[in-house]
Write a structure and sequence with these properties.
Shape: globular
Strand content: under 5%
Number of helices: 18
Radius of gyration: 20 Å
Structural class: mainly alpha
Amino acid sequence: MSIENVALGLGIILLAGYLGGEAAKLIRVPAVAGYVLAGIFLGPSLLDLIPDTLQSALDPVKDLGLGMVALLIGGELVWKKIKKLGKGIIIITVVQIITTFGLVCWAIHSLLGQPFVVAALLASLATVTTPVATMAVLREYRAKGPFTTTLLGVIALDDVFCILAVGLTVGLILSMGVEAETLQIVYLVPPILEVVFSIIGGIGVGLLMSKFLGSVRGNLEKLAVLSGMIFINAGIASIFELSSLLITMTAGVIIANMYSETSFKVMDNIDTPVFIVFFTLAGAGLHIDVLISNWYIAAVYIVFRWIGKWGGCYLGGIIARADKNIKKHLGTAMMTKAGLSLGLLMYVQDRLYGVVEVATMLIAVELAAIAFYEIVGPICVRHAIFKVGEAHVRETNTE
């Protein structure tokens, strides 16, 4: 029996997501994985309690969750921090992005015979490394040092590329169709314009908000203003067919650099219930039968993403003449995949609504990868920071 009442559905989603998160913690798995699993339990593959109508009715909550993730990424791109890291961080980021994108795209297209644009979209999603799960591990072990700083810098720059790449590849699918194998320059024009105008819009919003936030007193009032900005960005993006992710992330960069890099800490007051709904709904979109029929794509995707991330960071470290710890262990710490991946997945699902077969397969494969890396990724981050000696909490205290 599906739930049509929005209030009842929202209450069940919140409680089920919370219980899933608590259960995940008991087995030493990040809470986000529990939220996603709770969504799978409520979704069409099992209880089928969350119909498409309820998913649509809760779009504003998805918009808020997606906007919060985008603001967090934008807030990490503070110029004075990036400048301190030097050119090495840019070299490592670029090399690991190219390596990961290239390997995954080649494997999905050449080994599995998937259409080029589908392989390119999965490869774009493969490049993302979530800052949320990584930060949680770093805070838990009070990690500090050059390795930790480099890790956060590479993740922030990496995620900017991912958002741009996903926007472009989604635009290509809508312009070219799924089966097109030959890329024509004319098809790049619409997605490039979307990216450019989204960034311009984000700069405008960021400049206005940097001025406006100075006159807002109190953290709760700033929270209300930032939340309003996220919803307005989502509305503008929908009306003009732009990327709400890019608009909000760009605005976040401007605000963090021109107003305050701590502006978005006020989001801590509401992030838990929003993220519970956000991630639980993402899990509810997973069709187990589609995942089973595409398991081999998910397996190849997971393996080649791992090779691309680790190998790209190692090769980038060699080119940048980085410290041996960075060369050897940075790739291991880049495996997390949750918050932004789910946000981008919802963006893809919304934009490719008319391309049902592709959207369903992409969601199943990406959620399988997220589930794997959300469990394995934080463990890898912990392993890396202990190996380089930047964890300041004894490991035995947390076991």
